[in-house]
Amino acid sequence: MTTLDLILASSSRYRQAQLQSLGLAFRTAVPNIDEVALSHETPLSISRRLALSKALAVAKQCPASVVIGADQVLDLDGLPLGKPGSHDAATRQLRLLSGRVAYFHSAVSVISPRTQQVTVSTTRAVFRQLSVTQIESYLLFDRPYDTAGSAKAESLGIALLEELSSDDPSAIIGLPLIALTRLLNNIGIDPISLSKQG
């Protein structure tokens, strides 16, 4: 592969910014897939399946490209929490999460003409006891309606937490870059060598 055609199968501005931080040239494509959870699916398996499905959907249209897919699902005692989509739904999510331990499963998939890879990085999050006023104030500030679990850890959402632990600190934002770099290296793509200079 002399010229790398790298595609991020996502419309997420957060994941685009994360991938840009690696200095790689890439383009984006929106995967048109059904993201509804299947019956008896765990939060972890949902994240894996959707990350792979997003990458496969775009790879089908661009078979010579390297395609990255990603998905994140919050796991609260086995209950999957995705993007709330509205203020009311976000309020309900944060009330559920108040004072609880939850897990953010951040899956990433890399599809190339010869291989399919998918892995998950999990972040353990301990939420503070949150008052109704704190939840409302936070939501009005961050408006995290497009974020799994209604908490933007890269912004004021970090103040909702007592503790955050992961083997990949970038995973909480939605694209686990350590895991992604490993998958890219597996197919002979070294982001350090390919990063744009200047």
Automatic annotation (TrEMBL):
Read off the Gene3D superfamilies from this record: 3.90.950.10
Q: State a single Gene Ontology molecular function.
A: nucleoside triphosphate diphosphatase activity
Main enzyme class: hydrolase
**Gene Ontology CC, one term:** cytoplasm
User: What EC number(s) would the UniProt record show?
Assistant: 3.6.1.-
Q: Which InterPro entries does UniProt cross-reference here?
A: ITPase-like_fam, Maf-like
Its needed co-factors are: a divalent metal cation
Q: Where in the cell is it found?
A: Cytoplasm
Active site per the UniProt annotation: D71 (proton acceptor)
Mainly resides where?
cytoplasm
Q: Which reaction is this enzyme known to catalyze?
A: N(7)-methyl-GTP + H2O = N(7)-methyl-GMP + diphosphate + H(+)
Note the site residues: Important for substrate specificity. Y14, Q72, E154
Q: Which CDD domains match?
A: Maf
What is its biological role? Nucleoside triphosphate pyrophosphatase that hydrolyzes 7-methyl-GTP (m(7)GTP). May have a dual role in cell division arrest and in preventing the incorporation of modified nucleotides into cellular nucleic acids.
Indicate what this protein is called per its UniProt record.
Answer: 7-methyl-GTP pyrophosphatase
Q: Which organism is it from?
A: Orrella marina
Name of encoding gene: maf
